[in-house]
Amino acid sequence: MATRVKLLAITSIVAALSFIECADVPNLNQACFRCLCHVYTNCMSSDNCFGDYCGPFTISKVYWNEAGKITLPGDDPASDNAWRECATDYNCAQKIVKGYLQKFAKDCNNDGEINCFDYMMINSNGGYNCTPPLDRTETGRMWLERYEECHTKLNLLN
Questions:
Q1: In a 10 Å sphere around its CB, with 0-12 CB exposed, 13-18 middle and 19+ buried, how is residue 152 labelled?
Q2: Distances (CA, A) of 1 to 4, 7, 14, 15, 126
Q3: What distance in Å separates the CA atoms of residue 83 and residue 149, rounded to the nearest whole number?
Q4: Is residue 94 within 8 Å of residue 28, measured between CB atoms?
Q5: What is the H or E stretch that residue 53 is in?
Q6: CA angle at 71 for the pair 126 and 33, rounded to the nearest 5°
Q7: What InterPro entries does UniProt report for this protein, alphabetically (predicted)?
């Protein structure tokens, strides 16, 4: 019985930690990062680049620049490959996404709150004009479908 109680307590702690938000970006938590990753790459291409887009969040060099040129420890932002190396490392890529969202976070769908759905719209449409509906293109519809899959699976609030 004691083992079961300990296991339940550990499970509860892990679940709570997975929903801790980034303090300066509202509603950005590990579940949201997981859904953003799922939307763009099914979280399966962290070591790959496709054209000018790299890693689990399909980060471009322009996105990386806008996010503040975040690098892996010891890497030089002036290095030609610094953005690729960070973008293909899941933890570093999360920091790039967080930096970008710190700069551009806003209510893209005008529902009165800033949440993971807005972050998907920012990442999909770009930070300067996140409001166009995603269902206007085939790729956008695929992203919406993937977001709904993840949203439902992880029981995100939005």
A1: exposed
A2: 5, 10, 20, 21, 52
A3: 29
A4: no
A5: strand 53-54
A6: 50
A7: Invert_lysozyme
Q: State how far the Cα of 99 lies from the Cα of 67, in Å rounded to an integer.
A: 4
- CA pair distance 114, 101, nearest whole angstrom: 11
pTM here is 0.81
Integer Cα distance of 67 and 140 in angstroms: 23
Query: Rounded to the nearest 5°, which phi and psi values hold at 70?
Result: -70, 140
Query: Does 8 have pLDDT greater than 70?
Result: no
pLDDT tens for each residue of 37-76: 999 999 886 678 888 999 999 999 999 999 999 999 999 9
Distance set, CA 75 to CA 5, 12, 48, 81, 140 (Å) = 44, 37, 19, 9, 34
Instruction: Check: CB of residue 57 under 8 Å from CB of residue 87.
Output: yes
Q: For the chain, give the percent of residues with pLDDT over 90.
A: 71
Residue indicated by tokens 């499970």: 11
Please report which confidence band the pLDDT of residue 154 belongs to, taking 50, 70 and 90 as the band edges. confident
| Residue count of the chain | 158
